[in-house]
Here is the input.
Amino acid sequence: TSSRGKKIKNAFGLAAAAPAVGLLDVRVGAALGAHVLLTDVRAVCENVIRRNIEQNGTGPATELLGAWPNAARIGSGSASRATLNWMDEIPSDPFQNSALTFRDADILIAAECVWLRELLLPFVTTSSTLLRGGVRELILSVRDRSSTEDASSGKAFPHTNEVVREFESTGCSVEALHRQRSEDEGKEIVIFRITSAAAAPGA
Here is the structure.
C-alpha cells in the first residue's frame, strides 16, 4: 500500500458492450475501501464508465486520502476513470492538474482483456510496461476460447498458454492462482498473478 492510501488501478478490455461494465470494478472499491481507477478507450470511458460511477457514487471523494483525481466516493472507497488505449503509448499525464500517473497504482486488475489474439500483444506491452514502471502486480483472469495454441494459425482466440508465454517473453513472472472449468467443454478460466523482475527501484 502506498503512502497515499490503497489504490487499485483496473485495466479492463473490450467487453464494453455489456451494460454492467465497470460495476464489478466499482464494487471492488466499495468492498475493500480501495481507490479504483477504471480505464478503457475514450468513448467507453466517457460514456459507459462515467455513467456507472455516477450511478454508484455518493459524492466527490476529494477528502479521501489516496483517491484518484476526479473520483467519486463508493462505499468506504472511491472510483475514478481515465482513458488508456493499449494501441497507443501510455499517457504520461492522464489527469489534468495532477502529477499522478498510471504507475502510481499498486495493482492492476484485468478480466476479459485478451479474448482476441490481436489484443494480446498490445495488452501485454501496456501491462508489462506498467509493471516495470512500479506497479506491484497484475491480477489477470483469462477465459480460454481457443481451438489451437498455434499463434500463426490465423484463429481469432489465443490459448491461455500463449498469454503466459507473451508475458514471460517480457521478463514477467506468471503464477496461476486459481483454475476452474468454464461452461465450454474442455476449457477453463485461469486467474494469474503477474509480476516483473525488472520493476523500478522502490516499487
